[in-house]
């Protein structure tokens, strides 16, 4: 029988039917599990352990005669076992310890029970049901220190639960393991007025694993989206990145860019000159905002963009870390700062100052995405920088036909209604966030999960899809597309 392997969404190591674990968490006794404890501690030194290195959980190796397999992939999904035959973490790590640990276990001769909860053999994190059955989209999130990566993720999660259903775009649910990490981060974020938990340079950060479901017009689609928030300092650890298969094989990158990279912190400095009393909360939300936090600037990342691309992208790509990347979503964070500091540059039909409104109702509106892409590109051109070309060149290693780049922008702050462009620090979960879900919608489109509407791409000399033939084979050749046409193309001129 062929071995059907998949990658743990958490530690990024391979799992197959020969080593996958089943775990029963219902037995009340706690056991020392150093594998799980050590992994979670590496992800966050402040992980909210309830009992230190002790957890519930008896482990089971699947036995073929007691296991049901998913028909198409033959990966065990349910096993039948007596709880008394379960292994404690110590017994699992050292077979010689079997029955010699003195740890309390269920009485023998109990009846077999069905167990469907599975765990990674390498990190002992619990796997989502159906993981390995549905397709998984691995996404690497990159950006410099204080570029706003974690704040973006938290704000995006705040909005997904309401924004997706209200637009008939399905639902995205965080898996239980990721929910614990989210709660840790969000509690700090709320109690510190929208400031994220500091990340020590040696921490790996825990991934955000979403199970996405689209159901509309008798069409049902499911997938997992795994977003790895790579600490800025972590980009200098290529051995770790190379050893993490989830990161290494990610074909999509969320590249988080701070506008302060364009002017050495100039936007952050200028925002202090905006009087606090000119930034009012939205009507009906007067009591939801902390007056001290309303006009505070974000922390910021002021290293020049070209230097960041050279140090974090080009240097790692030559080592093979980013060689499979095919799509880069370049998201300019903290867009509230340029909009408030230089409102005259965002007049007319510039879409960046507007929130989503009714856009993307029932599908990703390509015309809207193209307009955002064009407006963001124009913003960078004011600094004599071709954003799309610079990012594409860094990720493609000179082979520019291999990587597509879409430019988006957002803010974790809330746009205050009115003619003047003003934002308030709406860090609360219920507060609106500026264009915050658009990057996730593009991810879903790339995964083939949601429909599109609006302008349709016209034929153009883009490359054929890269074929995964296991030999590094390349797709067809194609010419360089014109940046002004947008990432998805544009309607033909009439």
Question: What is the strand and helix layout of this fold?
Answer:
Blueprint: E1 6-7, E2 14-15, E3 21-24, E4 30-32, H1 34-43, E5 54-56, E6 58-60, E7 67-69, E8 76-81, H2 89-93, E9 113-115, E10 118-119, E11 126-127, E12 136-142, H3 149-166, E13 171-174, H4 176-191, E14 208-216, E15 219-229, H5 238-243, H6 245-248, E16 252-257, H7 266-271, H8 305-317, E17 327-332, H9 336-341, E18 364-365, H10 366-381, H11 387-396, E19 404-409, E20 414-416, E21 422-424, H12 438-446, E22 452-453
Parallel strand pairs: 12-15, 12-16, 16-17, 17-19, 18-22
Antiparallel strand pairs: 1-2, 3-6, 3-10, 4-5, 7-8, 8-9, 10-11, 13-14, 14-15, 20-21
Helix pairs in contact: 8-11
Share of helix, binned: 10-25%
Structural class of the helices, strands and pairings? Answer: alpha/beta
Q: How many strands, which pairing sense, and closed or not: the largest β-sheet?
A: 7 strands, mixed
How much is the average pLDDT?
83
Tally of alpha and pi helices: 12
- Counted beta strands: 22
Percent strand: 15-25%
Read across the widest sheet, the strand sequence of neighbours is 13-14-15-12-16-17-19
Rg (C-alpha, Å): 24 Å
Could you list the spans in which at least 5 consecutive residues all have pLDDT below 50?
A: 275-295, 457-484, 490-494
Distance between the termini: 58 Å
Which geometry do the CA atoms define?
elongated
